[in-house]
Each structure stands twice: as C-alpha cells, then as structure tokens.
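re: that chain from earlier
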Amino acid sequence: MTDSTSDGDRLELLELPAEERYVEFLSWAMRTGCVWALRGRGGFISLSDDEGHVCFPFWPDAATARASATGDWSDCQPESVSLDALISRWLPGMSKDGRLVAVCPTPDGSSVVIDPAWLLRDLLEDDAESRDGFTP
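^ sequence. v structure.
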C-alpha cells in the first residue's frame, strides 16, 4: 500500500516526542500494512536500551528508517516487514526471547521501548477499531 505523504513530511515525525511518534507509528502501520527495520550485512539490527535490554527497532516507513541509518548503522538499508509477519512471527518470537521493541528511534536514540506483547495488543486494538469504522 502506498501513501501520498512526502518523505520530507514523514521526516518531521522524527522531531515529535517519542509518545507521539508511537501513536503515529501505530496509525501508519495500520494504513500501510507494514513497518520498516534496518538490515545490515549481519541481518536486522538491534540496540540496547538504557537498562541493557536488547531491542529491535521499527519505523513506520522507509524514509524515517533511512534517516536513522547513521553511525554504526550507516551501511544498513531499510527493509519492510509486513504487518502480518510482525504480528504472527516477529512480536511473539521477540516476546519468547525476552527482547523489546524500540518504536521509531531517532538518530539521537530517543524512542518508546515497549514489550512486544504490548505493541501486539495496541496493533490488534487499532485493527479492531478500523474494522468497526472508527476514525480518530
């Protein structure tokens, strides 16, 4: 699915507070049917939060993921992950392995770090609301 929003408009998302980026991430994921990760030579990248938890970062679109591909991630490329794969494989697997999700991290490292089960719940709630004709 595509959207007519320009990359420049999407990059403004990175200037929002982390909680607002999270809400936008949920909305964008539901509209487009995918999220984006960064993939390098060794596979998908991960990071550690302030408490040392391993987190897998996801962004709502390729432009915001690409904008975060700096420093150690400068050789990484955005890769889409279908919402179906995120819900059915990624999040349950991350939960089982004790990993967390970093939602829409910015180049300076700020993000919402969340348990995959909570993100799954929020995505499923958004999906149920959209099927009921709910529009925020």
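Residues 130-136 have pLDDT under 50 and may be disordered.
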